[in-house]
Amino acid sequence: MSLSEYRKKRDFTKTPEPEPKQTKAGKSRVARFFVQRHNASRLHYDFRLEIDGVLKSWAVPKGPSLDPEVKHMAVMVEDHPLEYGDFEGNIPKGEYGGGSVMLWDHGAFETLGEEDALTQLRRGDLKFRLKGQKLHGTWAIVLMKGRGKGNEWLLIKKRDEAAETPFDIEKLAWSVKTGRTQDEIAANADDPDSMPEFLEPMGATLTDAPPKGRDWIFEVKWDGIRALVYIDRGTLRIYTRNQNRVEEKYPELLQLPKHVNARQAILDGEIVVLDEKGVSHFEATIRHEKPAHLILFDLLYLDGRDLRREPLSERKKLLASIVRKWAPVRISETFEGHGDRLLEAARAAGLEGLMAKKTSSAYESKRSASWLKLKLTNQEEFVIGGYTPGEREPFGSIAVGFHEDEQLRYAGNVGSGFDEAGAAELFRKLKPLETHRKPFTRGDKIPKGTVWVEPKLVAQVKFQNWTTDRKLRAPVYLGLREDKPPEKVEPEGRFTHLDRIYYPKDGYTKGDLVNYYDQVAHLLLPYLKDRPLSLKRYPNGIHEPYFFQKNTPDTYPAFLKTETIGGIRYVLAQDKRSLMYLVNLGCIDQNPWMSRIGSLDKPDYILIDLDPVECGYEKIVEAALLVKEKLDALGLKGYPKTTGGDGMHIFVPIHPEYSYETARQFAEVIARMCAAERPDLFTTPRSVEKRQKNKVYFDYMQIAESKTISAPYVARAYDGAPVSTPLEWSELTPDLRPSQFHIKNAPERFERVGDLFSGVLRHPQTLEKAFGKLQKLVGHA
Q: Which of 530, 552, 584 is the last residue of a domain?
């Protein structure tokens, strides 16, 4: 192990590349790998494996390939330091390797065989398994003995489930660190990131059990006011979640810029008032009974560098390095180990709860399953919608609620927790908001004589639990939350086992699935509304036993709507809360009927289901385009989507006035027309054994009452976490693959292209004219 050649080639006063540090070689068989896309004198890829305390490195002109048929030359170069692994940026022209460097992939690699990596490397034949974001599966790098200078190797992908033929590396030309292209990296050579004006703070998902695994750390859940702190050349701004500035309210914190070693920085934390035991209390913080402390737990921006895409572990290291010791400021301590024991310790200390955070997580301005909160006390925010007069002055209780499906739902009255001064101050704020209009549009048993107020104030309420009719039991008022917008007050979902691996090959968890459905619920729900669902549950992930469930148990919550059909009580997903409840049950994909409540015997679209019989996806595309020709000739419009598996669906929307039999016969005629025109492309036997291979099967028999089909936008239970994705017809090209769309990248696509399937709901079609044209086409045939 020597880094002398690496040092000799570089001037570290000119290049941003990391200078080596003294590194101790590890003994684990699982280490790291990195691939950098390097546009120097010519474009190439640098492939690096962590071996013997350094990065053994090869320049691969054409880059690694997932195609086992391809063997790419790899020229071994000097060892690089471990710090080089996540390097991305620009090496100045004139310096060794001058040009832009992209972190193209990274992950873990495991040596295969009995011998360690260094021994295999010295022998000239190293076998290993990669688990990265782009590269997976088993590989070998083999020395070409007797060739050239003795540094020429071959990088070879072995045949396994991760193999991909053909493989186009240019489709993956983006950074796993920043998401940038090579041109974007090159363009930012001398252009630092500007400091954002305002960021939405990252939110946590509520859970009832601590996650397990080495990638999780735990912190105290502080009971105060969330604060985003902006330091800009000696000035200080502190914002709440509601974008209110509060630094003047806490003058004891105004000297903070002098104690942070940065010209510009954005820090995330909590303003708290601590009792004599060091425990924070929200009510003490808003009353400002004692000097406040600022507890810091994250760093989002530092001197021209946007850190939000960096892993939490790196952000925390940088935070600790820039904050100087100063009594009013503390860095939130982190703990590793058994979450259940830590939770019990937190309970014994009288804390509100714990936070669990993934050390590898990026910072997202939304609620995320990469941050979890475990509450030991039930505390939530509620919107105040009225007050009741009482024997005591100035009021007896306040009526509170929360938003549900864009309506305010009554959750009960809070009559305790008020002292004389606090009640008077609250009443002064309620009085100008009085209105004759009742703000609650959901909920019942609201006390008579309630004085309504505009729902503009948010109260923090502690309570024992929820009643069966979703009211608060034993609520206690803690104070007003001026840092929370009333329109964002919603009940928190209780998700369980979010760290459970659902997609083992990809490392995706149940939390990743919850995150995905949280982002696409607004697109998916219109295609589920009023449709009975057949639930397929995967409680332990896609490779563990699953089971079907049609009948809805009485133990399921009352907010889940159901419909009894033929003695079976089917569940409906009418709103986001119901959808997320089903996801928490392990329903990876949602499979609705083709008809709705009120017209269950009449579908509102004709399903064209194209399935491969041991053929490539390019034949599915070819078959779909032929179906489009037939639909065009009939004057009908169809909407294609990937199934998320290996087939394709085309939905032909129709008015719900035709029977399933009529819809099925229509699809059957189109199927037979296509098969007659292209017998080389389609196979028709219903028996699976008799279907010809390397052809497409048109499954019109799927059109039947009570049969279900995967809805658009749902995730599927296959490796890669693919998503059933609506398409433009122009996207149906020979290189289209369902695996292109998965739970990690599909939300960005949907945000960009909108709902391509909206015509299925908005533009139902009649079939009379189409049947007439169909008869003529069949007659001519």
A: 584
To the nearest whole percent, how much of the chain has pLDDT over 70? 97
Is 386 in contact with 397 (CB distance < 8 Å)? no
Whole-angstrom Cα distance, residue 472 to residue 379? 11
Q: Which of 489, 563, 586 is nearest to 242 (CA)?
A: 489
> Looking at the chain, how many residues does it have?
781
- The enclosing domain of 350 has a CATH number of 3.30.470.30
Residue 494: is its pLDDT beyond 80?
Answer: no
| pLDDT (0 to 100) of residue 210 | 86
Tens digit of pLDDT for each residue in 737-769?
999 999 999 999 999 999 999 999 999 999 999
224 and 79 assigned to the same domain = no
The residues that are catalytic are 221
Preceding amide of 394 cis, omega within 30:
yes
Domain carrying residue 419? 378-488
Predicted TM-score (pTM) of this structure: 0.56
* Per-residue CA distances from 515 to 215, 351, 364, 371 (Å): 18, 28, 11, 11
Q: What stretches of 55-187 show up as alpha helix (H) in DSSP?
A: 117-123, 182-187
Domain membership of residue 594 (yes or no) is: no
Domain identity same for 132 and 279: no
Domain presence at residue 591: no
Where does residue 742 rank: exposed (0-12), middle (13-18), buried (19+ CB within 10 A)? buried
Encoded tokens for 723 = 């998503």
> Is 692 contained in some domain?
yes
Span 396-437, pLDDT tens digits: 999 999 987 678 999 999 999 999 999 999 999 999 999 999
> Which phi and psi (to 5°) does residue 585 adopt?
-75, -10
pLDDT at residue number 779: 63
Dihedral over alpha carbons 476, 478, 480, 482 (to 10 degrees): -130
Give how many domains the chain has, as a whole number. 5
d(CA 157, CA 65): 7
